[in-house]
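pinging the channel bc i need a second pair of eyes. not urgent but kinda urgent?? the chain im working w is below, pasted from the shared doc
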Amino acid sequence: MKKFMERQEALEQLENELRRREQVLEEKEETLKQKAALELKRGRKEEEVRRSLMGLEKQLAAMDEMQSQTSEGSKAIASSSLPEHKDWTSRKVALLQQRQELARSMASEKFLSQEEERRLAEIEERLEALDMEVEYKSASIAELEQTLQ
């Protein structure tokens, strides 16, 4: 009778451990979905910055091409359009500043807000904790199964 009661108790513990491990695995799956969503957002933002940078490079190259064509033309024509030259110069400076900002963003790899970066770090820590808990539960389950044999 005592062995039967011990076996029943071990079976209940095993069921509880299996249920808890399943809960942990479900939580891990949900946490992985959250991480994937943030990483997808980061990837999209990075691609957006990369495309913007390429667009700025094309604009700057076109402006340089126009400038070289203007320099080859008559100096009199260039000096007569002084206001246009100032607008062109200020536009080029603005493009260069935008390019510098985007290049800094690419270098720092900051494509998520501080809150999102913090959340991603928390998610990674939570995943580590869940992995350890799954390992512990699996070991506990294996031990209980061993005692039941």
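so The first helix runs from residue 2 to 72. and The chain is about 95% helix and 0% strand. — does that match what u expected or am i reading it wrong
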